[in-house]
Amino acid sequence: MDDEYRHSISGAPHIFADFLTGSTTDCLGCFQLHIETTTTDSILEPTCSPPDSAAPITVVVTPCWPQHKQFRRTLIIAVVALACLALLQARWHDIALLRGSKPAAKLAGYPVAVIENDDAPRTMVTASAFRPVAYPAGHNKTLAELCASFPRHLLATVQPVLKTGFTDAPGRLLSQMESCSACFAPGDLLVFSDLDDVYRGHEVIDLLATLPAAYHAYEQFAPYFEQKRLRDSGEAAANPDALGAINGWKLDKFKFLPQVEKAWEMKPNRDFYVFYETDTYVFWDPLLRFLDTLDPDTPLYLGSASPGRQDEIGRDTWFANGGPGYVLSRAAVQKLLHRRVSPTGVYIDPPFAEKHRHLLHDLECCGDSALGYALWQSGIQLQALYPMFSQHPLHHTPFDAMRWCSPLLTMHKSSFDDMRAVFQWEFTARSNDYAMRHRDLWEFNNPGSESRRADWRNDDRFGRKVEGDVVIDTQAACEAHCRSLEACLMWMWHGDDVDECFVSEDVLLYGQEARPESVDDRRQASYTSGWIVDRVKEWKARHECNDTLWLSHSFARIF
Fold first, then answer.
1. Are 28 and 68 in contact (CB under 8 A)?
2. Which intervals hold domain Fringe-like glycosyltransferase (predicted)?
3. Which of 20, 252, 474, 483 is the most buried (most CB within 10 A)?
4. What pLDDT, in 10s, does the model give residues 336-373?
């Protein structure tokens, strides 16, 4: 509205009187009126009475609110009230976001860079860092002589982290120190456990001793104090059976998260951290080659995938199974351990162990699952690299077209004797031209080089039971049925009182001894396994490895 405006009115006095005295009079309380006639020069003072003349007049209306104290007061109060209302509305919106109302569908603060499945393997040139790369078959080198060839200079960038437990089976830690962990001097290898110790010069660090007291309230944490009492009192050494009541597996879950923090604290800024367990066999040559092709400043979480929980907005998550081992890059560890800081330098986030304590409640079975979810909440997705990170033990490692030319980085559930034997053999089988592949490991046992073995189970997990219209009631009939199937490479007869036939197509494995056993407390069962030797030779000839095929991430390949 203009500060001053004019309006001309022509007409009878009653019209003007209606204008001034009607419903508009109250509205004019904030205006100053100057009424000018066209017949005189007089200026009428503000009035609510009509002029005597019917001559045309001019009304000059000037806003008077700048001088009106009550109006100014009302206006100020209204402006302040509106400002307060807007502020409260904005504050309420922020509170709603924090409480998880509808706007919280913006990924709850941890957007994850999703990695799509990639079923196309990579080929790349790699070289061994071992010197010499290998020794002749039948060598009689000692453990120390073999380890002299290990590229220990790479331990400045790659940190091995071995997890054990006070109640682990006797001999597990020994088998590590006489096989794939043998070449690490004290200080090279981090050994984490649930009680402190010293083993062959290696400091064994108790990860649970420094966890916040709030962890002690968990029922599954209670065995920690009991095993500590048994150890400190000498009762565990005098009566090892006393440890049988300690469920070390339940305690194990509390180590996964703190071992990452402790590894960074003790060996910061390594390119990669390799976490593995006492029944994990690590093929260091192919693993070191593989890590040399990766950028440590990219947040990487690598392993064999297992399904995890759903996150707050319904997305499926995955974690790396701890048994085959897993790898975290420097950037991944930094991102996981990151704590937000206020402008005044005060940490906003609680310490790492307290921040993720809620993930380790008594209903959570596994620490590797909790770690995977903590990484997911940090925006890091697992890269699923099974079967390079293999969940199979040596004698149950399958050989098929997908695996045959791909490297083998780890094995799980390895026995003491197998770990020592593979370690010695590995030093003869290594090549500078390619990393250790499944095809090379086949040479260790040569599955399919014999036609039949009694009291042997070549693993029906990768085969199928013959059912339906086909009736097979003898071992010979089982073998004949396998031969009738074009792709069948091996068979297994579950005999005596059971009479079941299993056949496996396009897959090979060695298996293990299986003595006759009772089934259902009533029936006896025996095992006989066989291979179609000529087909195995043909299959191998068709699958020559011209390149090493490094598998890429895919959740379609899981154990």
1. no
2. 260-336
3. 252
4. 999 999 999 999 999 999 999 999 998 888 999 999 99
pLDDT above 70 (res 88): no
Strand bridging mode 5-9 / 57-63: antiparallel
Q: How far apart are the first and last CA of the chain?
A: 77
Is the peptide bond between 387 and the residue preceding it cis, with omega within 30 degrees of 0?
yes
Tokens describing residue 137? 């078959």
pLDDT score of 87: 53
Q: What is the pLDDT of residues 291-330, one digit of tens each?
A: 999 999 999 999 999 999 999 888 999 999 999 999 999 9
Pick from 519, 514, 479, 477: nearest CA to 496 = 519
CATH class of 118-400: alpha beta
- For the beta carbon of residue 84, count every other beta carbon within 10 angstroms: 10
Q: At what angle do helices 367-377 and 256-266 cross, to 10 degrees?
A: 70
Strands (E), 29-142: 31-37, 43-44, 57-63
Mean pLDDT of 183-194: 98
Whole-Å CA distances, 532 to 3, 439, 445, 506, 550: 105, 18, 16, 11, 29
- How many CB atoms within 10 Å of residue 116? 8
For residue 165, give the amino acid letter.
G
